[in-house]
Specification:
Chain C: This is Putative secreted protein. Chain C: Residues 1-22 form the signal peptide. Chain C: Keywords: Signal. Chain C: It holds the Pfam family SBP_bac_8. The complex is a heterotrimer of chains A (424), B (366) and C (370). Chain A has 424 residues and is an all-alpha fold. Chain A is 66% helix and 3% strand. In chain A, a hairpin with a 2-residue loop joins strand 1 and strand 2. In chain A, helix 3 (74-80) packs antiparallel against helix 4 (93-108), helix 10 (202-234) runs antiparallel to helix 11 (237-248) and helix 18 packs antiparallel against helix 19 (391-415). Chain A is flat, with a radius of gyration of 31 Å. The two termini of chain A are 48 Å apart. Chain B has 2 domains: 6-236, Rossmann fold (3-Layer(aba) Sandwich), CATH 3.40.50; 244-365, RNA polymerase II/Efflux pump adaptor protein, barrel-sandwich hybrid domain (OB fold (Dihydrolipoamide Acetyltransferase, E2P)). Chain B has helices at 50-58, 100-110, 115-128, 144-156, 174-191, 202-208, 226-231, 236-241, and strands spanning 11-18, 27-34, 39-43, 65-70, 73-74, 85-88, 162-166, 194-199, 211-216, 219-224, 246-256, 259-264, 269-274, 283-288, 307-316, 320-327, 330-338, 351-354, 361-365. The longest helix of chain B has 18 residues, at 174-191. Chain C has 370 residues and is an alpha/beta fold. Chain C folds into 2 domains: 24-141 and 272-320, D-Maltodextrin-Binding Protein, domain 2 (3-Layer(aba) Sandwich), CATH 3.40.190.10; 143-263 and 348-369, D-Maltodextrin-Binding Protein, domain 2, CATH 3.40.190.10. Chain C has 14 helices and 10 strands. Chain C has helices spanning 2-24, 39-56, 71-81, 93-101, 110-113, 123-127, 182-189, 197-201, 204-215, 229-236, 246-255, 282-295, 298-304, 350-369; strands spanning 31-35, 61-65, 88-92, 137-149, 173-176, 221-224, 241-245, 260-275, 311-312, 345-347. In chain C, strands 1, 2, 3, 4, 5, 6, 7, 8, 9 and 10 form a 10-stranded mixed β-sheet that branches. In chain C, strand 1 (31-35), helix 2 and strand 2 (61-65) form a beta-alpha-beta unit. Chain C is globular and about 65 Å long. The chains are: A mainly alpha (424), B alpha+beta (366), C alpha/beta (370). Chains in contact: A-B, A-C. At the A-C interface, helix 5, helix 6, helix 10 and helix 18 of A face helix 3, strand 6 and helix 14 of C.
Chain lengths: 424, 366, 370
């Protein structure tokens, strides 16, 4: 026993330094732990980190189809370098010639329409120009052309549109800021980047509306969920189990079914309006296809996400705290406000965070019951992605959304402290 | 301590009954009064009704029948927060989101005391429990014993005249518990407050209280000072519940000169003090404390009855020896002898003769 | 590595074998994946040509898929992965153009690859203008048009402009939540001639003019995004007039007996048809071409109209349209292409919208938000 107290490093029983053999023993444990978590790690990496990474990339990559724009138009990009659109002059003859050369290759590779679509995101009309010009330009014999500008203008006079050329020049790099520009409601003109007219700034409006409605929905779930969770935590087990099933029941029903059910209930010829009229009121209420409908339906759908964390926190608060407060002279109200309520804040924090983040990304319900003024930014993202095929803009909007949520999370952490959140 | 009449009692239970389900009574016809400044312990096994009594006094349970009075006024319809009773809970119930000082200031704040007055009182209360330096900590940063002190200080900081404690030491280890027992009684007596203390630990009850009310089956079995309770239990439940006890079954043969002669079921005869037996032929349970059993025959009265005993087991416990004997057909008869230089150490298998003073042997209800 | 090599070898063998057999036998794959929209529409295709085709080709296995809504996205992904699992895909004309532009669809020569009309008319002539893309094999003509509640409106609307008259025709209107169609109708009803509509829409003033017209009924509109919504809204009495695909309205009227009438005025035609993915193995491509040739012949297209009220894309099929297979009603009057219904029509202007859709969609959204 005494030999380990001699000078020098501590030695293990076999004579190796103690630190070394401890490290070896720990390493084996670490490897085993890593192996156990490897499936999850790989899963998260493949199904979460990589898609998000690729989304971030998509929002700045300047591609048409699968290839970068400058790779499709190498000659044009080189020729336009010196050109300044603000002079009001069209690009040089060389640039027009380069366009014919690059266009013919692009046509061969079936890339010219994709290129058109890419530029069309910024300047309407270019898609049509590129498509229509395709065959005619491809038939040109570059060697014989003496006046490329005239030749192109002959194919379509829109080749003389200064704005078109300015758009090509602005998007001649491998990376572009134009998706973010669009996502922030800005546009590129020949004079430079400008904000759109205030009433054309849809993404700003949608973003603010999404945040505002999500906040309102979070507040509503809290206002309704808090008493329910309290009841659940306070009732005897048998009764509370039954109530819990009722709370969870919506969880087990398809989202679409629940949303459609709200549609039937809330529509103008629906059950609630029928009762309203039967009560003697004359005007039917607009409860759906507007923001109110979204708030009602989403509050109901997201309610369990508020109740469950609240319940799990409330369950751990022994009734003796309230009794203690009362024995110390607090009225029921004071006891609740000063003693019970503060102890449920971790549950409120968790529930609010959960509901808010889920609400911000909600898509189906606002689509079905939102009408014109109740849609969320996610509906727009989906529309850009699936219908218009503008993945870059969809990715930019998604990235901004992600940044906003992370920012809110950060603020929340600073204000409340994320350690104070208890999910169960 | 003299029994106080209920009219000048500080706390009084008058014919109090409590039922939760309308079928069984948890508290049956409870009458109890205690004077100002008394430290009373309600002792009993779990389910005996002692905690229910405490909760009725605190106002968290309502009496099904009967009246509870505080300082002469009925309090049945007064909500808990207006009763002005301090209370220490089993798990302290310190508010986890407040610091120690905030916890202590809470009752003062709801009473709308000024800031300086509050601070002075909080400081005094913390000093009283020797926790002056801990005002800024959170309850979770304190040890069990420290939390206990804070809970006590919080119950006392608004200077209630009555303090209720519901098994406050249950969660502490033995050494700390003994220390806190002393501390609590010291503070209670120093401040002169009336205390009702609930526990199921008889040692706690005996060491701390002025009087102990032994609860069983919804009734008070005996209400007496600790020494009386220990030495003169009024019935076999109390005798068995308080301290270690040897019991023997038998029948009263004769009562003479204030003593009873009991014939044990095994055939031997012994002398006892009749407690709740009155006539020959009654069945009785005889109780003798282990430390009152004499193994040195020379120290007994020459006429005293003795019993033959066989030593079964000898346990060295430091300050005492604990010896298990076979007596009158029973194998659980225990005696305790002091570890003195001249004390005999009995060996298993040894046959000895044991006896006792008739006053130490109580003939109780069977 | 080894696996790849082995697969390459197998593919090479298959291709070689396919090529060898093609000479004598016209070797075709014995399984085929047909992608369409599901529901009543796909059902009409199965009844009218898939089942008869399988009957003619013993041992052929047909797999059906209902992914047409995501056809472009999925074909792009398949092409990138180099593993195309679809053989024939039913798409709207706009998608066919997109796929063709990107080289994802096979180019078709109608006169050699498709069947001539029974009277010998060449396929290219029989389909006429409806061949909007070199890869597109037209199949049906459908339209987006209006239906109205016959019992809730005192007077039956006769003009598309009646949707802007909320006094004579009270109640809400169901319109699609996109500019296509709505902008054209707004301008037509504001007095713009159909041939000037798109020129007008290219100007800022023209767009504002359309929005101003739509503004007059904005508060009375329920916006839909799925075609099934309008029949339901009409059935519930939520709206009294609404736009949707004519086939949906047909089934609400003829199959469910709802009190709904058709307003054909200025219906917007759209096309649906087949494409064959580019780059299929020879045997599968041969099978796909064989199927498509059969499925789009004059009789087959006429047969399809027995099951659904969409007009056959061939001129020669129109006289052959008969009765509904189950209801026994004459189908011709329910066809969008019927002369009585097709007095005022316009065709979805794919090319124009391809250029202006991004921009107008954003403006439309901004208008909705105001």
């Amino acid at each position: 026993m005494a030999d380990t107290t001699t000078d020098g490093p501590m030695l293990a029983a076999d004579g190796t330094p103690l630190k070394q053999s401890l490290a070896r023993a720990l390493r084996r444990q670490k490897i085993r732990a890593l192996m156990l978590t490897a499936p999850l790690l790989i899963f998260v990496l493949v199904s979460f980190i990589m898609p998000i990474g690729s989304m971030l990339m998509r929002s700045i990559q300047n591609t048409a189809g699968t290839e970068y724009v400058p790779d499709i138009l190498p000659n044009v990009v080189a020729e336009l370098e010196e050109w300044d659109p603000t002079t009001g002059e069209l690009p040089s003859e060389a640039a027009f010639k380069a366009m014919i050369i690059d266009f013919q290759v692009a046509f061969e590779n079936k890339q010219h329409t994709q290129l058109g679509r890419r530029f069309n995101y910024e300047t309407p009309g270019m898609s049509s120009l590129f498509r229509k010009s395709g065959r005619k330009v491809s038939r040109m014999d570059v060697a014989e052309i003496t006046d490329a500008k005239a030749a192109l203008l002959d194919v379509d006079e829109d080749w003389g549109n200064l704005q078109y050329w300015a758009t090509i020049k602005a998007n001649s790099g491998y990376y572009t800021s134009s998706y973010y520009m669009a996502a922030f409601d800005a546009e590129r003109t020949i004079e430079g980047v400008q904000m759109k007219d205030p009433d054309q700034r849809i993404y700003q409006k949608l973003m603010l509306r999404t945040l505002w409605l999500s906040g309102l929905i979070t507040f509503c779930t809290l206002a309704i969920g808090y008493p329910v969770a309290w009841l659940l935590a306070d009732l005897p087990l048998r009764t509370s189990n039954l109530l819990m099933i009722l709370v969870l029941l919506p969880f087990w029903t398809s989202l679409l079914v629940r949303t459609s059910a709200w549609k039937i209930l809330l529509q103008e010829q629906g059950v609630i309006n029928d009762i309203w009229i039967a009560l003697g009121f004359s005007d039917r209420l607009s409860l759906i296809n507007n923001q109110l409908g979204v708030v009602i339906a989403m509050t109901h759908i997201l309610l369990p996400f508020m109740i469950l964390p609240l319940y799990s926190v409330m369950k751990t608060i022994p009734p003796s705290y309230l009794r203690a407060a009362k024995s110390l002279g607090a009225t029921n109200t004071t006891a609740f406000l000063r003693v019970y309520f503060p102890q449920t804040t971790p549950g409120i924090g968790a529930g609010a965070l959960l509901v808010f983040i889920l609400a911000v990304g909600y898509f189906i319900t606002p689509e079905l019951v939102g009408g014109a003024d109740g849609t969320f930014i996610s509906n727009r993202i989906y529309f850009q992605f699936s219908t218009l095929g503008n993945w870059g803009l969809a990715a930019a909007l998604g990235t901004i959304m992600l940044a906003v949520v992370l920012l809110l999370y950060y603020v929340y952490d600073k204000l409340v402290g994320i350690d104070n959140v208890k999910l169960g | 301590m003299a029994q106080t009449h209920s009219n000048d009692a500080f706390v009084a239970f008058e014919r109090v009954q409590k039922s939760y389900d309308g079928e069984t009574l948890v508290v049956k016809d409870l009458n109890l009064s205690l004077p100002k400044g008394e430290f009373l312990t309600m002792l009993g096994p779990s389910g005996s009704g002692k905690t229910t009594c405490l909760m009725m006094l605190a106002g968290f349970e309502t009496a099904t029948y009967g009246e509870i009075k505080l300082d002469g006024k009925p309090i049945n319809n007064i909500p808990p927060h207006k009763r002005g009773i301090g209370m220490v809970f089993q798990n302290y119930a310190l508010f986890p989101h407040m610091t120690v000082a905030e916890n202590l200031a809470f009752p003062l704040e709801v009473r709308k005391l000024g800031k300086s007055e509050r601070e002075a009182k909080v400081k005094r209360a913390l000093d009283m429990v020797q926790m002056g330096a801990f005002g800024g900590r959170r309850p979770a940063q304190l040890s069990g014993g420290q939390q206990q002190r804070i809970a006590l200080a919080r119950a006392l900081v608004f200077e209630p005249e009555l303090v209720l404690m519901d098994e406050p030491l249950g969660a502490l280890d033995k050494q700390l518990r003994e220390h806190m027992q002393f501390e609590i009684t010291r503070i209670a007596h120093d401040l002169g407050i009336t205390t009702v203390y609930v526990t199921h630990d008889q040692t706690e009850a005996l060491t701390m209280s002025d009087r102990v009310a032994v609860f069983n089956d919804g009734r008070i079995q005996q209400l007496a000072p600790p020494d009386e309770l220990y030495e003169a239990p009024q019935n076999s439940f109390v005798a068995q519940f308080i301290g270690e006890n040897n019991t023997l079954d038998g029948t009263v043969q004769e009562i003479r000169d204030g003593y009873a002669i009991v014939k044990l079921d095994s055939g031997e005869t012994i002398d006892c003090k009749p407690v709740n037996v009155s006539k020959p032929g009654e069945r009785t349970l005889v109780s003798i404390r282990p430390e009152r059993v004499e193994i040195d025959k020379s120290r007994l009265h020459p006429d005293a009855h003795t019993l033959q005993a066989e030593v079964l087991e000898f346990v060295y416990m430091g300050d005492i020896f604990r010896t298990r004997l076979r007596v009158a057909g029973r194998e659980d008869f225990v005696i305790k002898t002091r570890n003195a230089p001249d004390q005999r150490r009995l060996k298993p298998g040894e046959m000895i003769e044991i006896g006792w003073l008739a006053d130490d042997c109580r003939a109780l209800d069977a | 590595m080894k696996l790849t090599k082995m697969m390459l070898t197998t593919t090479a063998l298959t291709v070689a074998a396919g090529a060898a057999f093609a000479e004598g036998h016209g070797s075709m794959a014995d399984s085929m994946t047909v992608v369409s929209w599901g529901g009543a529409y796909q059902n009409s295709q199965v009844k009218a040509y898939v089942e008869p085709y399988v009957e003619m080709n013993e041992g052929l296995e047909v797999v059906t898929d209902e992914s047409s809504a995501e056809a472009v996205t999925k074909l792009r992904a398949m092409s990138e992965a180099g593993n195309i699992t679809w053989d024939v895909v039913d798409v709207v004309a706009a998608d066919a153009m997109r796929l063709c532009d990107e080289g994802l669809a096979l180019e078709i020569d109608p006169d050699t690859m498709l069947a001539d009309a029974p009277d010998g008319t060449k396929a290219s002539e029989d389909f006429g203008d409806l061949i909007v893309s070199e890869c597109f094999i037209p199949q049906i003509v459908y339209s987006t048009t209006f239906g109205y509640r016959t019992d809730l409106l005192d007077t039956a609307p006769t003009s598309v402009c009646d949707i802007f008259d909320t006094e004579t025709f009270p109640g809400k209107r169901a319109l699609e939540k996109r500019p296509i169609g709505n902008m054209e109708w707004a301008l037509i009803c504001d007095g713009v001639a159909i041939e000037d509509v798109y020129d007008t829409l290219e100007t800022e003033e023209g767009v504002q003019r359309a929005f101003a017209k739509l503004d007059t009924i904005k508060d009375d509109v329920v916006w839909w995004s799925a075609g099934a919504e309008t029949p339901q809204l009409l059935a519930d009495g939520e709206v009294t007039i609404g736009s949707t695909y004519n086939g949906r309205l047909f089934s609400a009227i003829a199959e469910q007996g709802q009190p709904i009438g058709m307003l054909w005025d200025w219906q917007m035609f759209d096309l649906d048809g087949w494409i064959i993915p580019a780059g299929l193995p020879a045997d599968r491509e041969a099978r796909a071409l064989d199927f498509v040739k059969f499925a789009t012949d004059t009789q087959r297209l006429a047969d399809q109209a027995k099951y659904i009220s969409y007009g056959p894309a061939r001129a020669s099929s129109a006289p052959l349209v008969g009765q509904h297979a189950e209801l026994g009603i004459e189908m011709a009057p329910h066809m969008p292409t019927d002369p009585n219904n097709a007095q005022n029509t316009f065709l979805f202007n794919y090319d124009w919208w391809a250029s202006y859709r991004d921009d107008l969609d954003a403006q439309y959204q901004a208008w909705l938000l105001q």
